[in-house]
Amino acid sequence: MTPETKMETKATCPYCGVGCGVLIEHDGARITGVRGDPEHPANFGRLCTKGSTLHLTARPETRLQFPELRDTKGEARRRVGWDEAIDVAARRFADVINEHGPDAVAFYISGQLLTEDYYVFNKLMKGLIGSNNVDTNSRLCMSSAVAAYKQTLGADAPPCSYEDFALTDCLLIAGANPAYAHPIAFRRIEDAKAARPDMKIIVVDPRRTDTAAMADLHLAILPGTDIWLYNAMLNVLLWEGQVDQAFVRAHTEGFDALRDHVREITPAVAAEICGVKADDIRTAARWWGEAPAAMSLWCQGLNQSVHGTHNGAALIALSLATGKIGKPGSGPFSMTGQPNAMGGREVGGMANLLSGHRDLANPEHRAEVARLWGVDSVPEKPGLTAIELFDAMHEGRIKALWVACTNPAQSLPEQERVREALARCDFVVMQDAYRSTETAPFADLLLPASTWGEKEGTVTNSERRISHVHRALPPLGEARADWRIVCDFALALGPRIGRNDAARLFPYASPEEIFAEHAATTRGRDLDIAGLSYALLDAHGPQQWPFPEGATVADATARTRLYADGRFPTADGRARFVVPTGRLTAERADARFPLRMTTGRLRDQWHGMSRTGKVARLYNHVDEARIELNADDMATRGIRSGELVRVKSRRGEVVLRAAASDEIRSGQAFVAMHWGANTLNSAGANALTLREFDPYSKQPELKHATVQVEKAELPFQALIMRGQGDKEGGEASGGGDDPAGITLTRAEALAPWLERFSYASLALAGRDHPAVVLRIAHHQPIPPEWLAELDALLGLDDEHCLAYSDTRRGITKRARIEDGVLVGLRLTGETAAAGWLRDVIVERQPTAELRRWILAPLANPPAAAKSRGRIVCNCLNVAESDIAAAIGGGAGFDELQATLKCGTTCGSCVPEIKRLVAAGRSAA
């Protein structure tokens, strides 16, 4: 590529809600690189490990490139044209609507859609079809925060901005691990602490995460006890005179009832329930009360609970009681989990909301939206929320479902029930960029959608900042923009259900026209953006709302934080205190299920891995699903780290690798949320979680379930690794038959094999020379014909392969060597050599000295082939063993950065490096 052909296009990262700006590097035909946008106010050029590898996800392999239709349940899908696909979808939905009514169909959409996509989905369902059955995976993510904000402050409007991290004197992080989930926001927190060491950081989390490790005070409460902690903190604030009585009298309602409620909830009482020291609760309250500016930051640890709304309300009460809201460095700040969950909420893209932050239950709001859209009415009956929707489908009440840009067969709780519901539904449409999500097998119609780098529209990040996302490339194959697919469907459906006004309702020729209509519907609302346009965003960059007509970019400081005047968007302008109620958790631990399992994120993976799972280097930090346990609990059960265990809840069972962790206390366990049926022989964590939900937000308790753990007796094991051949290029070499593409194709071909085994795990490995890794464990000898099929699938059955067999010991080995380089391996019966042999493959080490060891019956590697182990710094490929050796030689954090350079690029590994340094000093 010549310098003249290199171009850059402004967009945003499609991962978390920080909303980082990115510059997509491309040549007009393919994406070749990505870097942080130095002008974007969310990140100022920084990117995390996930964002900095986005260009490696822009590949054709595993993408859905043309529509596919299944004519009859159980049959294979066939390729069809767009006209036939849209016609069939419209006919099938119309048949259901005409026979069973509009409430017999539903749309389940995503916080990863752009705002324009969200807007037309919402208008389609509520304005054309006449039902409110449109909900989103944001229901699993942020709906409790929405409900908490509305119950207390009057509107779904986070009042803070990222710049408040640098201005606060006390930051309370609750139920969040931004070091992993929102890394670039965490970089700003690290910067703030470095610049102002006296700033106090309190972290409330059952685990000692990398976020908690840098806190001045870590409150490792028991899962589900958050409300008791915040009530006890308020008790201390009351007793010690830290409540701002003047602010409470002038700007709030309901404080007397909450004061009476917390009167007896002393630190001593809460300490017994929460499992932390009473003195630590007093310390946290005093730091909060004495700080000139104090702010809270929370995410899924609070939201994903049967009392998630009141978790948020109890935390918000600390800001209201002390008057620390609407001021620099102060206020309650909910971080969104998805890139455009906020934009979806703005357009009313949930079953209980309407456009412009209007409430479905309010008849005036319904009438106003009907006038704006030019329809007779908006349906009054609330729609089904996510869990209710799939329950209704399980019972046969939902007969046609449209899923867009989300993966319910991996992300919803009680997966067995979810998959039964999908299988029972008469007609399922999946609109997605990827063909191999866990939901795809249940779809009767697949519609290819454009994805990152191919889309234009807007997104709103966690601090209410709207960015214009530009398209770098045209959609791959026959893929179409999500908004275009919706409009085409609406035009085809309308006449079939007696709505001849579909063309008037969906006249859009571009996403810009949709944005203009959306902005107009917000006029006069709390999120008024009537003054925004694509042209203004392009000229002046991302802007925070509200931005009413007549506003100027120079007014930006007035939008930095909300409620500076003490007036709130309620009927009387006052905020509300809420008396929190609810059970501690949906289920209690008992003798049968004694361990409290929590779920969460990994540093380098995101959601169901449909995007991050395509990048080999993102597996190098954690390469296999595992359950993390306290060492005492493992010893009690006779389990060693690295062994397979059977994990059972009241709903399901999975087999996972056990890992000892000093992050959690005895009686608890942790499983990452990302792994599903494309990487395991099970649905992962959500085979265990339960669908009980918060009564106000309808958000399920995905964060907590009780489980039992026992050693899994699976003696027959195999390990298969396949890397690149001699003529295959590197990971970043672009499209075509390069090794990343070949590896992805192999991984996709191996995924259906996972369910055959008692345990199976599929992962990628390496960096410039990626490989696919399949780990297998079975309750009986693995059938030879299965191994033969796998050998053939991966090219481990020809003249390039060495073979070894020990029938008596049940050991067989095959190794593929091309031009002196090991490129493939299959071990059965003896798999302990996995670590160093993987490194031989992905680093393409010459095998001249290693050849006799590859098939040897011993697992000990030769001196020339020691395993590097886990990669801590993905940007610069620095392994934990490299860091440990340097620490052993006396290196501190600064010396590590100077010599190994780890943590000097994206910074995502900095918290872990600091933790390793501290552990090394402690050991010394």
From TrEMBL:
A Pfam family of the record is Fer2_BFD
Arranged from A to Z, the UniProt key words for this protein are: 4Fe-4S, Iron, Iron-sulfur, Metal-binding, Molybdenum, Nitrate assimilation, Oxidoreductase
User: Cofactor(s) for this protein?
Assistant: [4Fe-4S] cluster; Mo-bis(molybdopterin guanine dinucleotide)
Q: Which residues form the 4Fe-4S Mo/W bis-MGD-type domain?
A: 6-62
Report the sequence similarity comment from the record: Belongs to the prokaryotic molybdopterin-containing oxidoreductase family. NasA/NapA/NarB subfamily.
What's the protein here called? Molybdopterin-dependent oxidoreductase
Taxonomically, what lineage is the organism? Bacteria, Pseudomonadati, Pseudomonadota, Betaproteobacteria, Rhodocyclales
